[in-house]
Amino acid sequence: MLPAITWKKDRLVMVDQRLLPWKEKYLELITVEQVASAIERMVIRGAPAIGIAAAYGLALGVRNLSRGCDLEKEFEKFYRRLWKTRPTARNLFWALERMKRVFEENRKGGLAHLKRVLLQEARTIEKEDFEINRKIGENGAGLIPEGATVLTHCNAGGLATAGYGTALGVIRAAFARRKNIRVYACETRPFLQGARLTVWELWRERIPVTLITDNMAGWLMSRGEVNLVIVGADRVTRNGDTANKIGTYSLAVLARNHSIPFYVAAPISTFDFKLKRGEEIPIEERNPDEVRKIRNRLITLPDVPVRNPAFDVTPGRLISAIITEKGVLRPPFSREIRKIIHRTDSGNE
Ligand code: MRU
Questions:
Q1: 245 CA from centroid of ligand 1 (Å)
Q2: If you take atom 6 of ligand 1, which residue's CA is the nearest one?
Q3: Which of 143, 136, 194, 138 is nearest to 165 (CA)?
Q4: Which residues line ligand 1 (CB under 6 A)?
Q5: CA 233 to ligand 1 center in whole angstroms
Q6: Model confidence pLDDT, tens digit, residues 168-224
Q7: Buried b (16+ CB within 10 A) or exposed e, 262-298
Q8: Which atom of ligand 1 approaches the CA of 161 most closely?
């Protein structure tokens, strides 16, 4: 399985996801600015993956400092730059906060020591994410029945994480148990994560996948051709409301209408224990040209007004279960999530 992001010979290496599946180009990043801009421009995307990238970004920033600099001030500058790259995925902020704690605990140890521990922490975040994905896969595989047709949206796969994936991790785990399953991948306008990335990932592993446009899901459900929906998440609030790629909410409404289970797969680092409900989640609005153009070609009038919210919020009441590394959460989510907050030392602040 190809890692979307990894540390190699003093550099942060990532595959340029904007070019997939046509071109497999790897970029080597060495500065905070390069990492921040890669997140903004979606060279790397997917909630856990951008968290990992941001952690490495901070490690790179400190790595490039020289003795005698104002450490606090420089660190704060890097932190703020990465903080404002994308607003919706909780994992970005979770990773930055975790790195900041390590910085504060070790700042008295000197620059060389800090360089070492920050890089070590970023590597640990990456490694842990992979293991968490495997666990999510294990926990969720039993929810996919033999012979099922699964519909997924966007890309919650190896490319969106340290590898393996959340929603695709569950699909991979079910497939590894030799279940005879099929996947419908929604193309995911406007950025086409489904058509470009999910299809590519599943195809490479010979997991049967069929591409559909986003507006075909309802028809296929009405004909009994979809047995369950599984998606990833960018942020889950304390009541189970879940932000994920734009179009997820429509699928949840459709699934409910057709009595089809709707599952979310997400690590605990995606949960925002500070937010009570979905309305509080900041939703990113991206460049209108992403909607006006496909692969740089206009598909409409150049100046037509456009909306381009990148995410929507699915209310917890439409979600059948949230699959995490700590187990499968069932409604009512508020109670289940409260138990997790109690078990997590300091919450995931
Ligand atoms: O805009 P993107 O491509 O970063 O959005 C990604 C998603 O919405 C994913 O479903 C989510 O981040 C979960 S990835 C495991």
A1: 6
A2: 46
A3: 136
A4: 45-48, 89, 154, 156, 160-161, 166, 193, 231-234, 244-245, 310
A5: 7
A6: 999 999 999 999 999 999 999 999 999 999 999 999 999 999 999 999 999 999 999
A7: bbbbbbbbbbbbebeebeebebeebeeebbbeeeeee
A8: 15
d(CA 321, CA 152): 15
Q: Which amino acid is at 97?
A: E
The residue whose CA has the least distance to atom 10 of ligand 1 is 232
Quick one: tokens of 30? 């060495």
Atom of ligand 1 nearest to the CA of 50: 4
Active-site position among 10, 70, 234, 312 = 234
Please name the amino acid found at residue 78: F
Show the 3-state SS of 200-217.
HHHHHCCCCEEEECHHHH
* Nearest in space to 64 (alpha carbons), one of 13, 118, 4: 118
- Looking up tokens 């099929």 gives 182
Position 296, amino acid = N
Catalytic: 234?
A: yes
pLDDT, tens digit, 9 for 90 and up, residues 260-303? 999 999 999 999 999 999 999 999 999 999 999 998 999 999 99
Ordered by where they begin, the domains of the chain are 5-134 (1.20.120.420), 136-345 (3.40.50.10470)
Tell me if residue 66 falls in helix, strand or coil.
coil
